[in-house]
Design brief:
By secondary structure, this protein is an alpha+beta fold. The protein contains 7 helices and 10 strands. The longest helix has 8 residues. The protein is globular, with a radius of gyration of 17 Å.
């Protein structure tokens, strides 16, 4: 089956070393939605300059949970950088949620952040500002150009692994050592 026929929702995109676009170099993105109109995902291995506490404060949401407030907010991609995206587990309904897969959701409404601040949010969650988007056929083209690897979503990688280890670990889970690829060192 060709990549053009595959729905890549709930797959990880792993940037190959030759990808020079600064928005995506050495990135791992979770594809949250993919159809004939295009694809949308969230980069899951890049910290922004903000902590969750700073974002909550800017939104007028208070929290006494120091660990929650110290969490890094991710730079989710170059599209809608002013919007928050929460990738999370759990089955509670929120005002604006997209189901990515069984037990994995993407929520963009304020109510989830209020619940997290109050200690009533999902067990596992990460918050990103911005997302990544591809127009119709663009992601399929990039896959055909060997810009990305795909790998199954891995909840432990998304929620538990340190950000700096996600790129190589994601590739390693499908048997690829990105540091051994010729383009990584700049030599053919």
């Amino acid at each position: 089956m060709s990549a053009a026929n595959d729905n890549l929702a709930n797959q990880l995109l792993i940037a190959l070393p030759a990808l020079a676009d600064p928005n995506f170099a050495r990135s791992v993105a979770l594809i949250c939605q993919h159809d004939e109109q295009g694809a949308m995902g969230v980069v899951v291995n890049r910290a922004s300059e903000y902590t969750l506490g700073e974002v909550l404060s800017q939104m007028g949401i208070g929290s006494d949970d120091e660990a929650l407030c110290a969490r890094p907010v991710l730079h989710g991609g170059p599209v809608h950088q002013e919007r928050g995206f929460v990738l999370h587990d759990g089955d509670r309904g929120w005002d604006s949620t997209l189901q990515v897969a069984d037990g994995l959701y993407l929520t963009t409404s304020r109510d989830i952040l209020e619940a997290m601040a109050a200690g009533e949010g999902p067990r596992r969650a990460l918050v990103a500002l911005g997302c990544a988007g591809w127009g119709a056929g663009q992601l399929e083209y990039e896959l055909g150009e060997n810009t990305w690897l795909t790998a199954p979503m891995d909840a432990d990688l998304l929620f538990d692994l340190p950000l700096e280890r996600r790129w190589q670990t994601a590739a390693g889970r499908i048997g690829v050592d990105l540091f051994r690829l010729a383009d990584y060192s700049g030599h053919a």
